Amino acid sequence: QVSQALKSIARNEHIKSYIQKSNELYPLLLQAAQRFVTGEHKKDGIVTAKELISRGYFISLEYIGENTTDLEECRKAKNEFLNLIEEMGSLSMKQTISLDLSHIGLAVNSETAYIQLLEMAKKANLYGITLMISMEESSKTSDILDIYKKTTEQYPNVGVTIQAHLYRSYNDIQELIHYPGKIRVVKGAYQEPVDIAMSRSKELNNRYLKLVQQLIEADHSVSIATHDEMLIQEMEHRQYLNQPHVEMEMLYGVRPDLLRNLKRKEYNCKVYLTYGKEWYLYLCHRIAEYPENLYSVVTDIINP
Ligand code: FAD
């Protein structure tokens, strides 16, 4: 319930506009958000990316946004991504860009998202950049996978995220291993009906392991995206992490100590970075996912 409430707050246009207009609250919240978000502008993401790359990490950079229903705004978002691709390309950053398809057109219709993604994939391919599609609410899963499949057949530099908490994911992976793109496995951030998804539990961790095993046995490129220490230990024990087509990926600001330790062991380690004016939405997601973060945000606001 807390998680749903926070997501509703994040999407509430009145609250958003109040915060944006508040000269007191806006900078304080932005400062608190910077624990998880690099900043509001592309250059903020690039600066942090460069720094992490120089320390031996891979990076995945997202321009934050989702559920854009206005076609013109979808085009603007796509253009921002195209500029990001060009800038990373000009810096020879052969890294990853993450995106929500609902940011570039899926909330309008599937065809729009597909056409815009194709344009991005073509440009990214020229520069050796990977595009990683995030997974959204279960009502969008089939559309996202359809768009992914059509795109990765033409541009194998496009990958997709799969949520372990959805019961359908095992079958989805059975099919996806026949496509070239990288698969990122996450537990799943959205509240879903109990008949289609499981909640955080030992059962979910077992399911997560099973999906990763499925990909490793198929010799498929995989990004293991979790901060769950027990889960990571088990995968290390099973020798999953030292394979060349496997990487560990964590969110910027969440368990950097854990990722650092894994990098010391010479595993492929990637940091998921974000930037953009919609940082407020992203901050609410991180608090919803782990309500203890609310405490650190409040502390940051009280002691800026
Ligand atoms: P959990 O069991 O939730 O957490 C394990 C431990 O990690 C916690 O005890 C805590 O110590 C730490 N932790 C976890 N989250 C936080 C946090 N926010 N702040 C501080 N500590 C935390 N979800 C989607 O639905 N679609 C996506 O496309 C998607 N992409 C992602 C990409 C990456 C690279 C990552 C890392 C996650 C992504 N997620 C996505 C979110 C994911 O589904 C989970 O909600 C999130 O990773 C938390 O789950 P966990 O695996 O870390 O395990």
TrEMBL record:
Enzyme Commission number: 1.5.5.2
Gene Ontology BP, a term: L-proline catabolic process to L-glutamate
UniProt pathway: Amino-acid degradation; L-proline degradation into L-glutamate; L-glutamate from L-proline: step 1/2
Names of the cofactor(s): FAD
Ranges for domain Proline dehydrogenase: 48-289
UniProt keyword list: FAD, Flavoprotein, Nucleotide-binding, Oxidoreductase, Proline metabolism
GO MF: nucleotide binding; proline dehydrogenase activity
Residue positions binding FAD: M135, Q163, K187, G188, A189, T226, H227
Cofactor note: Binds 1 FAD per subunit.
Catalytic activity: L-proline + a quinone = (S)-1-pyrroline-5-carboxylate + a quinol + H(+)
Full protein name: proline dehydrogenase
Source organism of the structure: Pseudogracilibacillus auburnensis
